[in-house]
């Protein structure tokens, strides 16, 4: 597979790989995973040292953003690097197999830009775990505080662990509703983008990075990280003049690799609070990500 970013970036991800790997291995074994759900919420803390500028610059380039947009700041969606280990550790407090976990959606509130060359403090909580007939829903939250201990971001992550026979899936074709959408940009995902995204964020889940695993999966190929979809879609919207300060999206269909000519669409009208619809469509019209964003400008 083609690798567009240097292997030396791995050194910046060792803590991430260790945290996420240990959480996945521990919870995959019934003997080592938690025996029961703790009283909620459960809180964890983590301090993050300043992230290397070369890594941030490469990630900005991969996401399709204008480099001038992030000369002093870190993209909010780079939480896929700095917040993911804490989210994984929080999820591992639930007594379920994390190897079967599926990311369903994320809500991000951006209060202050995350500055480069500054440490961060993360305060995380396992907020809720609800059991349904065919799945377990897990809600985790990370609050990002800057060097002045001011709240910069709130990240709410929603995931599921399948249980038993899945319920009937709904169609992922666009539905006719009152919202009219306009295509504002497009992007394509190459077969090696799963590995490149992992080299930039530290998320080396095999379904995104190992072709042999992809071929043996129900998708018959690799799939792109949900946060990879989010990053490129986020920047497509910002490239037309919006500054996104809030986002609430769901991933409803895995994005197989490669995948060309993906369309980013936004709602033509905002609601009374300023939120506007957003969705990512494949060339066949199927929807992969859907939700809304709160933006300034445009």
Automatic annotation (TrEMBL):
- The leader peptide range reads none
Q: In what residue span(s) does the MaoC-like domain sit?
A: 193-264
Q: Which Gene3D superfamilies does this one have?
A: Hotdog Thioesterase (3.10.129.10)
Q: Which residues cross the membrane?
A: none
Domain of life, per UniProt, equals Bacteria
Report what the protein is called. Answer: MaoC family dehydratase
Organism phylogeny: Bacteria, Pseudomonadati, Pseudomonadota, Betaproteobacteria, Burkholderiales
